[in-house]
């Protein structure tokens, strides 16, 4: 857990502040007025049933989609509606549920290509550190297409690190991966959060959520229906209804 002083940051200073964002696709309301903020070094879990708007929320924060209303601020700077590359340079970077690698390029080139959105000068050193942290040094010269699904997830995570982000959004990064890879990912999150990087993680693995998240946000039908620490959420009636069906 973080010291109270870190949690008490005003929303102006917060690395990430999302204020009343909404997104509609035709008649579907994917995100319906969501507000949240996350402090430096904080790990916030975002959980909720399929279709509850979690991935869309990430797209709004990372610039893949523009919100219909509401705002996104990064350390006080309004980045609402900025294109993805510009938001990435400003410091928000995400992974996708399905890794979006250049599969005909080596791991090394995948990593270096991501660095153009961060500090290019330090890219080589950063790559060495990142592949060591993620335990993929032995495959840097392999094509991304030669890797296992779990290793591809590590490279996707590594590409995010190469952008030198202040805020990392992880979308189901441990889904379907081998327990060893899950452990590497957990260790990397711990290591990076200690350097002050803020995380939002969409995660279905409740053991992982319990282990890594300082607090949780539960979404259902585009809205936040509960917020709190793991135990509070586990006992929350709204959460049980969201997962088990409405009366
Ligand atoms: P989650 O990640 O929680 O499973 P999503 O954010 O992917 O949820 O989806 C929320 C809702 O928005 C779903 O009903 C989904 O079908 C819809 N949706 C998401 N993206 C699009 C899109 N690009 N076009 C149309 N509908 C979308
Ligand atoms: Mg999703």
Textual characterization of the structure:
This protein has 247 residues and is an alpha/beta fold. It has two domains: 9-90 and 167-174 and 200-247, Rossmann fold (3-Layer(aba) Sandwich), CATH 3.40.50; 92-164, no CATH class. It is 36% helix and 24% strand. Helix 4 packs parallel to helix 6 (149-162) and helix 5 (123-133) runs antiparallel to helix 6 (149-162). The longest helix has 15 residues, at 179-193. The N and C termini lie far apart (36 Å). The structure holds adenosine-5'-diphosphate and magnesium ion. Adenosine-5'-diphosphate (ADP) binds at residues 25, 28, 30, 48, 50-56.
SS-based class: alpha/beta
CATH topology of the largest domain: Rossmann fold
> Which geometry do the CA atoms define?
globular
Helix content: 25-40%
How are the strands of the biggest sheet laid out side by side? 6-7-8-3-9-10
Please give the radius of gyration in angstroms: 17 Å
Q: What is the straight-line distance between the termini? A: 36 Å
- Share in β-strands: 15-25%
CATH architecture of the largest domain: 3-Layer(aba) Sandwich
Topology as H/E string?
Answer: HEEEHEEHEHHHEHEHEEHH
**CATH 4th-level superfamily of the largest domain:** P-loop containing nucleotide triphosphate hydrolases
Count of beta strands: 10
Largest sheet: 6 strands, mixed
- Stretches where pLDDT is under 50 for at least 5 consecutive residues are 4-8
Number of helices: 10
Mean pLDDT: 91
Domain module count: 2
* Structure ligands: adenosine-5'-diphosphate, magnesium ion
CATH class of the largest domain: Alpha Beta
């Amino acid at each position: 857990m973080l010291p109270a002083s870190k949690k008490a940051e005003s929303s102006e200073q917060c690395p990430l502040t999302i204020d009343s964002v909404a997104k509609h696709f035709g008649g579907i309301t994917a995100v319906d007025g969501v507000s949240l903020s996350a402090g430096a070094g904080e790990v916030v879990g975002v959980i909720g049933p399929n279709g509850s708007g979690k991935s869309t929320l990430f797209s709004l924060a990372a610039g893949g989609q523009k919100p219909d209303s509401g705002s996104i601020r990064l350390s006080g700077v309004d980045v609402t509606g900025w294109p993805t590359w510009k938001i990435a340079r400003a410091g928000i970077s995400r992974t996708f549920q399905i890794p979006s690698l250049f599969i005909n390029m080596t791991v090394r080139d995948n990593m270096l290509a991501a660095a153009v959105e961060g500090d290019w000068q330090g890219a080589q050193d950063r790559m060495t550190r990142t592949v060591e942290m993620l335990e993929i040094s032995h495959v840097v010269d392999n094509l991304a297409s030669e890797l296992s699904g779990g290793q591809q997830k590590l490279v996707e995570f590594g590409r995010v690190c190469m952008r030198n982000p202040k805020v990392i959004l992880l979308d189901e990064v441990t889904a379907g991966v081998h327990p060893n890879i899950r452990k590497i990912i957990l260790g990397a999150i711990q290591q990076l959060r200690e350097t002050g990087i803020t995380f939002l993680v969409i995660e279905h693995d409740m053991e992982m959520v319990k282990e890594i998240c300082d607090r949780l946000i539960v979404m259902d039908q585009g809205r936040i229906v509960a917020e709190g620490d793991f135990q509070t959420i586990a006992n929350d009636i709204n959460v049980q209804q969201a997962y088990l069906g409405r009366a």
